[in-house]
Amino acid sequence: MANIDLSQLPSDPEDAKGYDQIYRAWKRLSDTFENGGQLQDAEFQSEVQSLIASLRPREISFMGEPYEASIAHIPEAVQAKAQGRLQKILMDRHGFHVKREGGGLR
User: Fold this and answer.
1) Alpha carbon 48 to chain centroid distance?
2) 106 pLDDT above the threshold of 90
3) Which residues, other chains included, contact 87 with Cβ-Cβ below 8 Å and sequence gap of 6+?
4) What is the three-state SS of 13-66?
5) Number of neighbouring beta carbons within 10 Å of residue 22
6) How many CA atoms lie within 13 A of 66 on its CB side?
7) How far is CA 21 from CA 4, 25, 42, in A?
8) 63 with 56: CB under 8 angstroms?
9) In this predicted model, what pLDDT tens digit does every residue of 53-62 receive, in sequence order?
10) I need a labelling partner for 3 at 20 to 30 A (CA). Which of 10, 37, 90, 91 fits?
């Protein structure tokens, strides 16, 4: 698999729509976790809600899938899962597709 720079816009104009906002949310979660922190719940919920306009219907569905019961009550685990889902959306928009059975969008 080729290296991909998620900070770069996808070449397809349709895939580039809303990409910056998705990337910023992913990067914020990523940087927060890298520094050993987590967002406050209200801040996290606000971040997720602000993304809705930037996401496609199947991406909204993917982000809205329920979390495993074992982690649903652990805010940092939910945020880590959300970060992973955003990363998959960014990769998907660059043409790297992960099958749904493997936790992806397709």
Assistant:
1) 9
2) no
3) 6, 26, 30
4) HHHHCCHHHHHHHHHHHHHHHHCCCCCCHHHHHHHHHHHHHHCCHHHHHHHHCC
5) 21
6) 5
7) 18, 6, 18
8) no
9) 999 999 999 9
10) 37
